[in-house]
Amino acid sequence: MQFEISDHPAPRSAEQIQKVLADPGFGVNFTDHTAVIDWTDQDGWHNARVEPYGPITLDPAAAVLHYSQEVFEGMKAYLHSDGSIYTFRPHANAARMNKSARRMALPELDEHDFVASLEQLVTADKAWVPGGEGEALYLRPFMFATEAFLGVRAAKEVSYRVIASPAGNYFGGELKPVRIWVSRDYVRAAPGGTGEAKTGGNYAGSLVAQQQAAEKGCQQVLFLDPLHENAVEELGGMNVFLVTNDGRLLTPELTGTILEGITRSSVIQLAKDRGLTVEERRITLDEWDQGVRNGQITEAFACGTAAVITPIGELVDGEHSIASTGTGEVTQALREELLGIQTGTVEDRHGWLHRLA
């Protein structure tokens, strides 16, 4: 697919970009361009282009506004020491987006066109990629139904887009353990639902629980399996791992209600490379609690594209809390290796990197 490039008529100056990059935050500043591909049931995917970033004009009856027919992805572009820009496992993101699209009755996009859209956007806006420690250009591919109608059926007109935002550390500042609130009032997903799809409705449904967490002084919320009491599922936007004192790495199994994280699968591979035994299975809060108390569970961390790997310092369940050891050796080693691969300072022995510009 060939992309038509339309330069921004008034791009930000080098000085303005540097001001943003000096304190990028997360998801608050956006680059000058966006990549776009249109789809209709008659013409398929067409009209690929890179155009100036700006508001999207939608009919008030657009299906996405009424039936939440949309999916998205999250990934990062990293500036390497030689000035090149790489992303991490983009074909895995493309495959997951298509899996999400199938679940939400949206059209699948060819993986090569998905990756090409990233290449075209990053090439246009490569000046926006920050180079500080822990910083990257966050890429947000997304797809949504644009057809104007109020009947409940799959839309016949869809838009795929990519936007980009300079990003610092997700939780801000230096790496430090986070407090997690256990949600007893809400569940994230149920069997047969949309839990394994990366769709906005899952995140919207988690926000009230996230508000509860914030009220309790916690940075994230942990959701439980509604059919198996006290079984751990995932956080509002990250997967969970536990490290044991006998060389095992535990994480909840994928049952269709948990998002199959790209970072999750990468952590599993890197852990196996280090000789750790990885167990993907049902894990209960009781096992977590008892394991910490008797010393069998020595570390706990969460992972995802935005935060990479973040240690869990305390799990708060009502009046009860489960403490952790903070940033343990395994957590730190996996984080350093993963970030090293992404930023080009550690050998990419699995061929995960893809050059964008």
From TrEMBL:
Residues where N6-(pyridoxal phosphate)lysine is found: K198
Family classification: Belongs to the class-IV pyridoxal-phosphate-dependent aminotransferase family.
Domain of life: Bacteria
GO-annotated molecular function: L-isoleucine-2-oxoglutarate transaminase activity; L-leucine-2-oxoglutarate transaminase activity; L-valine-2-oxoglutarate transaminase activity
Organism in which the protein naturally occurs: Nesterenkonia natronophila
Enzyme class: transferase
NCBIfam families in UniProt: ilvE_II (TIGR01123), PRK13357.1 (NF009897)
Pfam family, any one: Aminotran_4
Enzyme Commission number(s) from the entry: 2.6.1.42
Catalytic activity as recorded in UniProt: L-valine + 2-oxoglutarate = 3-methyl-2-oxobutanoate + L-glutamate; L-leucine + 2-oxoglutarate = 4-methyl-2-oxopentanoate + L-glutamate; L-isoleucine + 2-oxoglutarate = (S)-3-methyl-2-oxopentanoate + L-glutamate
Swiss-Prot/TrEMBL keywords: Amino-acid biosynthesis, Aminotransferase, Branched-chain amino acid biosynthesis, Pyridoxal phosphate, Transferase
Keyword Amino-acid biosynthesis attached: yes
Pathway(s) where this gene product acts: Amino-acid biosynthesis; L-isoleucine biosynthesis; L-isoleucine from 2-oxobutanoate: step 4/4; Amino-acid biosynthesis; L-valine biosynthesis; L-valine from pyruvate: step 4/4; Amino-acid biosynthesis; L-leucine biosynthesis; L-leucine from 3-methyl-2-oxobutanoate: step 4/4
Cofactor: pyridoxal 5'-phosphate
GO biological process, one term: L-valine biosynthetic process
PROSITE patterns tied to this protein: AA_TRANSFER_CLASS_4 (PS00770)
The protein's name in its UniProt record: Branched-chain-amino-acid aminotransferase
Signal peptide: none
